[in-house]
Amino acid sequence: MIFKWLAAVLAGLQIIGLSSSEPMVQLFDVKEEKVVDQRSLTPNLEQAVIDLLETSPSVYTGIDMNPQSGVILHIQFTSPVYLSSRIYSGAAKEVYLYLEPGEKPRAVVFLATTDQYVIVTLDKDSDAFIKDHRWIRTKTSGF
User: How wide is the angle at C-alpha 26 spanned by C-alphas 40 and 79, nearest 5°?
Assistant: First the structure.
């Protein structure tokens, strides 16, 4: 099932009880099956996510999106974001970035106006994105 890990991420977020009014980004470790870090969604990090989503996105053509290692970042934008690619048929309100070592990032992008989503593959290196933004490296993530 495509969203096996998405359900686990959502369950993990409920457990840590996000009650802050400040937008947060959560880091879910795939092998540990839990949220292992969270931080504020700074303007710089938000722009980096937007830039990543605009790196030549293509519609994901795989059958299964369940990662074997790496991390999943959950981002809720402070306000809906219009992205430049035609793949996104509306403003993005929320994103799950799947970052596996040695793989191109994948994303589930939830759209604000239609309550639909699009699944894309992005043209950047997952390892570089994690390194550039100094996310913690867990024992099991593979980074």
Answer: 55
Instruction: Output the CA–CA distances (angstroms, integers) from residue 16 to 49, 82, 141, in the order listed.
Output: 23, 30, 20
- The amino acid sitting at 63 is I
* Contact present, 57 and 89 (Cβ < 8 Å): no
Edge-first strand order for the sheet with 92-99 is 34-40, 24-29, 71-81, 92-99, 106-111, 117-121, 58-59
Q: pLDDT 10s per residue in the chain (143 long)?
A: 455 555 555 554 444 444 456 788 999 999 999 999 898 999 999 999 999 999 889 999 888 888 889 999 999 998 999 999 999 988 999 999 999 998 999 999 999 988 799 999 999 888 888 888 776 566 667 76
Backbone angle region of 47, left / alpha / beta, with phi > 0 → left and psi within -120 to 50 → alpha:
alpha
Whole-angstrom Cα distance, residue 24 to residue 40? Answer: 4
End-to-end, the C-alpha distance of the chain in Å comes to: 25
- Angle (CA) 127-130-135 rounded to 5° is 145
